Amino acid sequence: xxxxxxxxxxxxxxxxxxxxxxxxxxxxxxxxxxxxxxxxxxxxxxxxxxxxxxxxxxxxxxxxxxxxxxxxxxxxxxxxxxxxxxxxxxxxxxxxxxxxxxxxxxxxxxxxxxxxxxxxxxxxxx
Length: 126
Known about the structure:
Elements: H1 2-29, H2 37-48, H3 51-73, H4 76-82, H5 85-98, H6 104-124
């Protein structure tokens, strides 16, 4: 279980950093929802050369391969809830790096998710 926890902590950290970098990079590029096909293609080319998006994608790849490793030895019902730790890291890092406001209600929800993760993780050791 310790091996699972350590690898999942690394995976979730890599995934969270990847998500933060992708969000920050795309906010810098701008809203693509109202673009025509040509504008979207230009953004796609820009995205392929933007360091934040490249590193963010690489971090998500790290997450993916660590996740595959965990799935090779751990029950999905134990491993999958550990991914919920991502919510805590995203809440903290989004405030700091993206300037997002995390409301008290969102923090309560995050704490409830973490409590559930702890209960599920505890049950996996029996």
